Automatic annotation (TrEMBL):
<dbReference type="InterPro" id="IPR020845">
    <property type="entry name" value="AMP-binding_CS"/>
</dbReference>
<dbReference type="InterPro" id="IPR045851">
    <property type="entry name" value="AMP-bd_C_sf"/>
</dbReference>
<dbReference type="InterPro" id="IPR000873">
    <property type="entry name" value="AMP-dep_synth/lig_dom"/>
</dbReference>
<dbReference type="GO" id="GO:0019427">
    <property type="term" value="P:acetyl-CoA biosynthetic process from acetate"/>
</dbReference>
<dbReference type="GO" id="GO:0016208">
    <property type="term" value="F:AMP binding"/>
</dbReference>
<dbReference type="InterPro" id="IPR032387">
    <property type="entry name" value="ACAS_N"/>
</dbReference>
<feature type="domain" description="AMP-binding enzyme C-terminal">
    <location>
        <begin position="519"/>
        <end position="598"/>
    </location>
</feature>
<keyword id="KW-0007">Acetylation</keyword>
<dbReference type="InterPro" id="IPR025110">
    <property type="entry name" value="AMP-bd_C"/>
</dbReference>
<dbReference type="InterPro" id="IPR042099">
    <property type="entry name" value="ANL_N_sf"/>
</dbReference>
<feature type="domain" description="AMP-dependent synthetase/ligase">
    <location>
        <begin position="70"/>
        <end position="462"/>
    </location>
</feature>
<dbReference type="Pfam" id="PF00501">
    <property type="entry name" value="AMP-binding"/>
</dbReference>
<dbReference type="GO" id="GO:0003987">
    <property type="term" value="F:acetate-CoA ligase activity"/>
</dbReference>
<dbReference type="Pfam" id="PF13193">
    <property type="entry name" value="AMP-binding_C"/>
</dbReference>
<keyword id="KW-0547">Nucleotide-binding</keyword>
<keyword id="KW-0067">ATP-binding</keyword>
<feature type="domain" description="Acetyl-coenzyme A synthetase N-terminal">
    <location>
        <begin position="12"/>
        <end position="68"/>
    </location>
</feature>
Length: 635
């Protein structure tokens, strides 16, 4: 019996039980039957909980890129591996077959080697969503260098912090990037960043926009001529199962960004397994995840998960609104996309557009649609279900984190009955638990608590680069012996999980624990509301009270604000109860968002408490200018 693909609900429960009772057998069998190894492991796993040290497939030897590309060549050499859709729909798209990808990755691997990159070296990749980004990541992994992708929207200071933190000596970037109707110069940003990164020896440049750039003699090189000359064969480096594959920075609630370290074998096994099951992947599928490779979602579900399965993955350079708000639907129609995976923030913004944009397209190729990154509110869930999935395609609301490496909680399409706003059930191997304030495991259903995982899983991050103490402190200290996700969750009567937001988004009002996500859900149901964020602020009597920051749809703009406030509170009252009514409502032009589309509630919390001087690290913010406008705005 194979454990790699779950066929029905009964089998899900069977596999789940097996994965808990005999995790060595469960993961061992998946790893053995679905990947190629230079040498198999001695032990499936070994842990030291005290030290928060975890190893999977101990002493196994492999190369993940051999698994992503080489082993597919005999059967799938001419199959498209990557379909590249440029920002400008007038520009010709590119189809990169598995054979092409092999040649391009090998050439790049040889160039990196020639430039002195060695196994274990850290390589910073700061590129737009173009094939060179995927190829650079894979070339690093092929030679055993550790890639650290930085989203190409980060500022110079954010880059230099990350480059210095993990000691990158090499940077791969481009002259610039195209996003919507903008051309953004990237090289000058890198130049500025590197002024404070004395250890960087080489900068390799992709020509994307043709912008004029400064080339620093001895440091900067154009990639194209080097690639031209390079050999298109390369023998993949033998890697240990626990050799680091990549570092990816994620922001903490305070302090410097955390360089999460993912290692090779466990990450490979679980991203491939989760991709196969969560998206019900089949050989002829065209899979499209709209994330950027600068985020974990792009790493796991644009690059590694799909390629490990020999899939065709779409890589989109642009934005959902360019040239028109129908771009996503154009692309689905153009390539006959079968799985579409996006974020609630994108859905909410596309929902405010005229229905005709989505309804005028043939989306009949779609089979599964997914959501990731934030709780998906009920209204957005239904819109997605009705207009994109046409009530035909199951929505997979996938919960996971940079730290978890792959999806941990999600419905399985056509298997797990979905429920709006619920990520539903943990995947096999994932022992999700809810903990109460007294640090006891909650056994009952219909209760909320802190979401933890009580047994290690293969794709978990192994440490924070250079700071194992912080790793232990952040993830394993609140609930000893368990991984604390930082998220709050509710478990319903059948055991489905609903993520209620970061645990610090829980507000205790007059002794009642209120997750902000369900309140935002209720608010967003009001037809005049576009988006909302609710935070708690200190209140003399209630301990905390609720403050809502709300953006309006066009139709809401002309409405009387006082009436709107009353109506919004009525919605909350009837959906949740009068206890959850907002004490303050401020209508704002936009909400502060991170570059990956998450609302930065931390800032709103400070503002609501009158703390407007110091906001900590806001380098991940895409629209810092909104802070002042919110501070100066009237209630
Ligand atoms: C994959 C990713 C992780 C945090 C996570 C949680 C939130 C992600 C979610 C979700 C509700 C979902 N989150 N998926 N909340 N429902 N389906 O986004 O990684 O950028 O590290 O963020 O995102 O709060 O803890 P990352």
């Amino acid at each position: 019996m194979s454990y790699y693909k779950i066929e029905n609900l009964e089998q899900y429960f069977k596999h789940y039980k097996k994965s808990i009772r005999e995790p060595r057998k469960f993961w061992g069998k998946i790893a053995e039957e679905n990947f190629v190894w230079y040498q198999v492991w001695d032990k499936v796993f070994e842990f030291d909980m005290e030290e928060s040290k975890f190893q999977w497939f101990v002493n196994g030897k492999l190369n993940i890129v051999k698994n992503c590309i080489d082993r597919h060549l005999a059967k799938r050499g001419d199959k498209p591996a990557i379909i590249f859709e440029p920002n400008n729909p007038e520009e010709e798209a590119q189809t990169i077959t598995y054979n092409d990808l092999y040649n391009r990755v090998c050439k790049m691997a040889n160039v990196l080697k020639d430039q002195g990159v060695k196994k274990g070296d850290r390589v910073c990749i700061y590129l737009p969503m173009i094939p060179d980004l995927a190829i650079s990541m894979l070339a690093c992994a092929r030679i055993g260098a550790i890639h650290s992708v930085i989203f190409a929207g980060f500022s110079a200071s954010a880059i230099s912090k990350r480059v210095n933190d993990c000691g990158c000596k090499f940077v791969i970037t481009s002259d610039g990037s195209f996003r919507g109707n903008k051309t953004i110069p990237l090289k000058p940003i890198v130049d500025e960043a590197l002024e404070s990164c004395p250890e960087v020896e080489k900068v390799l440049l992709v020509n994307r926009t043709g912008a004029d750039v400064n080339m620093q003699e001895g440091r900067d090189l154009w990639l194209a001529p080097l690639l031209e000359e390079a050999n298109s064969n390369h023998v993949a480096q033998v890697m240990d199962a626990e050799d680091p594959l990549f570092i990816l920075y994620t922001s903490g609630s305070t302090g410097a960004p955390k360089g999460m370290v993912h290692t090779t074998a466990g990450y490979m096994v679980q991203t491939a397994y989760s991709f196969r099951n969560v998206f019900d992947y089949k050989e002829e599928d065209i899979f499209w995840c709209t994330a950027d490779c600068g985020w974990i979602t792009g790493h796991s579900y644009i690059i590694y998960g799909p390629l490990l399965n020999g899939a065709t993955t779409v890589m989109f350079e642009g934005v959902p609104s360019y040239p028109t708000p129908s771009r996503f639907w154009d692309i689905i129609d153009k390539y006959k996309v079968t799985q579409f995976y996006t974020a609630p923030t994108a859905i909410r913004s596309l929902m405010t557009e005229d229905y005709s944009y989505v309804n005028n397209h043939d989306l009949s190729s779609l089979r599964v649609i997914g959501s990731v990154g934030e709780p998906i509110n009920e209204e957005a869930w239904h819109w997605y279900n009705d207009h994109v999935g046409k009530k035909r395609c199951p929505i997979v609301d996938t919960w996971w984190q940079t730290e978890t490496g792959s999806i941990l909680v999600s419905p399985l399409p056509f298997i797990t009955p979905t429920k709006p706003t619920y990520a539903t059930l943990p995947l096999p191997g994932i022992q999700a638990v809810l903990m109460d304030e007294k640090r006891n495991e909650i056994e009952d259903n219909q209760i909320d608590g802190s979401l933890c995982v009580k047994f290690p899983w293969p794709s978990m991050a192994r440490t924070i680069w250079g700071n194992h103490e912080r790793y232990q402190e952040t993830y394993f200290s609140q609930f000893p012996g368990k991984y604390f996700t930082g998220d709050g969750a509710l478990r319903d009567e059948v055991g489905y999980y609903r993520i209620t937001g970061r645990a610090d988004d829980v507000v205790i009002v007059s002794g009642h624990n209120l997750g902000t996500a369900p309140i935002e859900d209720a608010i967003n149901e009001h037809h005049a509301v576009a988006e909302s964020a609710v935070v708690g602020y200190k209140h003399d009597i209630k301990g905390n009270a609720l403050y809502g920051f709300i953006t309006l749809k066009v139709e809401g703009e002309t409405r009387d604000r006082e009436n709107l406030r009353k109506e919004i509170n009525q919605y909350i009252s009837s959906h949740i109860g009068p206890i959850a009514k907002l004490d303050k409502i401020q209508f704002v032009e936009s909400l502060p968002k991170t570059r990956s589309g998450k609302i930065m509630r931390r800032i709103l919390r400070s503002i609501s408490n009158g703390e407007t001087k110091e906001f900590g690290d806001i380098s991940t913010l895409i629209n810092p200018e909104v802070i002042d406008s919110i501070i100066n705005g009237k209630i």
